[in-house]
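# nightly structure sweep
# worker-07 picked up a monomer target from the shared queue
# config: single-sequence mode, recycle default, output format = structure tokens
# input follows
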Amino acid sequence: MSNALTQWVLSRRSATILIASLVLVIGLFGTTQLQEELLPNFSFPYLVVTAVDPGASSQVVADQVSKPIETAASQLSGVQQINSTSLQGFSVVLVQFNFGVNTDTLQQQLNAKIAAAQLSTSATGATVQTTITQLNANTAPILYVTVEGKNGQTSAQLAQWADQTASPALTTVKDVGNVQVVGDTTQQMVIVLNSSALTAHGLSVSDITTSLRSQGISFPAGTADIADQLVPVRVATTLPNAQALGDLLITPATGGKPVRLADVATLSNAQVYPNGSAKVNGTSGVLLDIYKAQVGNTVKVSDGVLSELTKLNHDNPDYHLTPIYDQAQQIRDSINGVVREGILGAILAIVVIFLFLRSLRSTLVTGISIPLSIMTALALLWWQGISLNTLTLGALAIAVGRVVDDAIVVLENIYRHAQTGEPIRDAVRNGTREVAAAITTSTITTVCVFLPLGFTGGIVGQLFLPFALTVTFALLASLVVALTIVPVFASFFMKVPTMPTANGTRAVLVAPENTVLQRVYTPILRWGLRHRWSTLGIAFGLLLVTFAGAGAAGIPVGFLSSGNATLLQGTLAVPQSSDPRLTTKAIQGMEGVLATYKSQGKVALYEITTTGNSALDLTRQALGGGNTTATLLITLPSNVDGAKTAKDLQRDLQPAAPQGGTIAVSVASSFGMGGNTLSYVVNGPNAAAVKMGSDAVLNALQPLKNIAHLKSDVSAVTPQIVVTPDPTKNPLANSALIGQRLSALLQGQSTGTLTFGDGSQAQIVVAVPGLGSGDITGYIAQIQQLPLAPGITIGDVATVQQVMGVTQVTRINQSLAATITADITTDNTGLVTQDAAKDLKGLALPAGVTVTQAGIGQQQAQAFGGLGIAILAAIALVYLVMVIAFGSLREPFAILFSLPLAFIGGITALIITHHQLNLSSIMGFLMLIGIVVTNAVVLVDLYNQLHAQGMTTEAASIEAGRTRVRPILMTALATILALMPLALGLGGNEGSIIASDLGVVVIGGLLTSTLLTLVVVPVVVSLLDRNKAGPALTKTVMDNPITPILPSPVRRGS
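# output follows
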């Protein structure tokens, strides 16, 4: 089939060139249409269920809200894990599914099951309000924008302008999903009631709230007919300003003399931050968090937002919007870096071809395969809807070295035929036909290497399947180019060296019988064939030494390299139920450290936001452990080492944390996975057992090296006050009524927002005084005196007492749980998780308590296991394809001997360069299977042809090696040099770092496998076929070089 294709294109050369030009145009157009992202487009299979039960304790929320939701979720298909966090009045349930499920369908099913459960609030019996959202990569903002005033505007004024002007304008940008104003303040008028005064005047709380709700409201009173025109009449109550509230007269519902509000309450102004407060470089301000829609393209959304920011700055001269972080810029930098390295690699590959062929025309004929193959792959990516991201671009950059392999083999064989004196057209036809089967088999085997990735679950399949498809597209395109475009261009442009003759004509310069390369290689091969077992012993001895060296050197094991990022993120976590003033004090200490770093040029900008009380903030807090009260975002100068600065900052910031609190700082990886956290989950039948198991794990891990901030999220047992109604004392004594009144009084009851005559607005909140100063007995006494109804206090109808309880209930897979975490302080996360597993082995635990690995250790185990299976499956598929192609079991078996030889160089390269053994480097070993087999296939295919022509095993082995040594070295060196810019990580960005790990392995593996394959594969072939060669003939072959019969030089006119 391949021969027929070559014949067809040679007979229609003009049409072939036009088709190639069309492919280039389509590829260029498709490139402009591709979406640009940092990562392949995929969603994490998570559903997050949030539910609100106002006033309910964490235990009540766990029993009456979280558990029924867990039960509903467990009935869905594909569930991998269910985590729930129950806080006071709030529940968050995280449902994790297997990758590949349809989360849209599962969201509908879960919503229906929760609705069928008919959850009701503990206080009123009303239906619990639940919200189900999908967790995906877009849950993090793509831009952070600061809002600044040029005329000394207050934070409240900045927030108001941002909320009313900037946010609505930015929301109109295409594919902007949400704009959250952080630092947005709400003006409150807090009315603190005096319980004794209320009782003295016969007033109840409802008297106060009813009067307040009637303010600022207009009522329609009908219409008046004035001069034949109907005029609406309304009755309205408007206070001139917030201070006038103190003169508001309150009349008891039971009758009596009206009382001024100021006589029974204290009024004060306050500012609250519903979405948290923001401080940029130590100055209070307003921040805009901009999220993109799920379908949006990050770069295009960013471009639209930046354009709108410019317009807003122009139209609003009193304000200025400044982006402090733009994920799209990181994408642009990563993509540009990989593109630059890919182009440089292509240039180096072409230089290698030129140095071997010493012909500019022949080099250009081969070089045309690079743009044609890459553009074809880009067109196919566009057709498949795959984005242009750091992994797909890295795949193209890596493929640059491989796509020339087939073209090199074809062109080198054509060139060799032409050097024997064949006319160019015959040399093109015969040279292509001779290697067509070999390069087709080798390319198909390489493609088959990536097939198992399509069936690998988890994050590996999601991340690297687009990578594999990109390489596959490029390789298949290169095969077609090698069999079609290269022969056509060779027939047009290729010329072989000639030499002048005595009669004035020129003759083709016939290739010498022994090139320098052959004179070096042939004796080595002869020695190997004479000492077959010694040769194999040396090869596999090197493999054993390599593995031993890897064990001694301790190759660091990780998940994914993060590179030298210029963005850090951090969190401040304080003990649960801590006084908010502890957070304020900690932030002040952190600002001092960050200001010093900024003055020293180590930090470009720092921003600290506190956690708000919105549902989104509460959800994030619950998912993050329930006690995160502030987050940090730190941008670094480009010349600063991100990883080192993160470690230094974490060390220097930690003293600012309150007792029992922690501050964590890390590189903000856009991959959203991996991290550097050791994590274990302790499950048990009850809280006491979980606490004992958690303590046992903490004690066992305490001596572990290379970790910091070892802690457990077991909720501390703290004092709680329980109000128990007594129906025998009064019919009013029911939990719903008392719960409502207490919630309103203790937490503050909003009566709405009033607009005053001066245009100002304020949210009116009614509350009781802040109770107690650490004296819980006094606190209980004050609660007992709170008014429930006129003349009736809480103490009259209920018992108020102190008990001990937890503020948070954590459940994993429907049982009580605690999570043990520690920050890993070394790049070798694999070593830490391995040592931790040893420390926990045989640990004595209470009955029913289990400890399971989570976090980075679990991710690595699953990912490495999946890739390990993929590598074994790839080897099996490669062998199957070769058996089909060769029609024999022996030759493919001999070729497989080249695979272990690749591990020698790959592992050695990791040791020398100090790169991690991670997902990227393992993908490098997977790629090596295909690349290494290619060289061996080309070698064994020629051996079979020569053997079929009557040559003995030894003679065919030597001649095949001598003939194929040049194209094998050319393809290997071209691939190595093409990968060199990627392996060196010249871009220094996150995308090039990932390609760097892979490139290092491929380069090292190719260096050793190529050199050893040229000797080991012929040796194994000769061992399998040795009985076919006679001793006498074998001796002759060993001692005398093979001289191929060449035709006489063809004379051509000058």
